[in-house]
Amino acid sequence: MSSCPQSPSTRTRAIGVLVLLWLAVVGSTQSRAANVDLPILGDGSSRVVSPAMEAQIGRGFLKQIHSSLRTINDPILKYYVEVQIAALAQHSELREKVLQVVLIDSPQVNAFAAPGGVVGINLGLFLYASDVHEYASVIAHELAHLSQRHFARGIEEQQAAMLPNLAGMIAAIAIGMTAGGDAGIAAISASQSVAQSNYLRYSRSRETEADRIGLNTLVNADLDPDGMRRMFESMNRAYRFSSKPPEFLLTHPLSETRIADARTQALQYPKKDYPDSPDYALMRTRAIIHYAASPEAAVATYEKAVKDNPESKTAQYGLALALSRAKQHTDAIAIADILFTEAPDRLLFVSAYAELLTAAGKYDQAQGLLEKYLLLYPDNPPLSMLYADNLTHSGQYPMAEDVLDRQAARRPNDIDVWYDLAEVSGKAGDIVGVHRARAEFFALHGAYGRAIQHLEYARRLVNPGNIQLHAKLDQRISDLRTELRVAQS
Could you report the per-residue pLDDT of 261-273, keeping only the tens digit for each? Predict the structure, then answer.
């Protein structure tokens, strides 16, 4: 889990303002809703904000997310979100792949897309989206923002001289959020009034465009286009009388006209039955249990769900998970045994089964199960992370370190991999490994000074004869110093 140097209110305000600042720049000219202009290859936006520059901004934005907000470290939920977004992106107009997905630990409904292919959602989105079609409508909308390069197009509509000012403000906010300095907070406050006065104009053109392109993405992915209208109405009902609407409604304001437009657009597509996704139902269950008042309250909720619908696999899954959280492991495993036996090929059931076995202390059984499925799905993220966790709990630290080393190589931007690797390296007695993993963890938070410090510690511990490792450490220190200079410039 990422470290959070500031108070929750300051962190939330800071990251919200950073989002609003981006949206304000995108929408600070008068909207042109009557003529929705789509970007073409070689458009003017690429001359002002290149894809490489967008990627750089996206990486900086992601570091501020990690340093400011709590993120979900559940490997099963993370895997589902990443796979689902990647699949949906294939049916969108996005030319580049989504580079990074971040799942934020907040029960509020929210999602965002940042320049450079960064997509983030709050886990709370699962609480409000009753089915996969509603959930996917929000993701499709955000992918449309990326595919239409709304950030770059907004910049192109302004004077090119505005870009250095924007970069300076983002840098000031980045420094303030990382170090907690007064200068950074002052930059945040100065930008807030500008952002708040302009984001509404962004909604009138770019939001409509993203809605309509998102609907096409849903249809192309064989998902219900009416899910967008249902999602809008659900959010509108939930927050109609709220004095403090969620961030999503601040940056994506809903109106009756927008909801009606979503309904009208959906009616243009042929009517058909769209079944819900059983996998989505399982992940929604995990989110509900994550935010339950207590494990015991979750047990009561899913005991009732099973009583009301004894055949529901989702209800049984939820009850097993809730019982495990409440440390009623015998009852949890009894249910999980049945679920796994009935669906041995469903990866999400296999993962949860292994998770519950480890929680119950059945390390050998969980290890055997995970090793079997890792032969079928080598280095699969949730299976690998659960395998490393099992090995750690059973005291097999060097093996766990090897598993996490492979994951770190495949997923170098995953903060949870580096956090777990630092922990298990310490237990394995690999102090150099501890410092290297901590360095990458801090680098992903934008804390370059601390990252360099850990690498310097590691370098002093390495045998002078290990020339290759010394060279790797020297190169990484040099790279991080360059990133630090860029962040401070």
Answer: 889 989 998 888 9
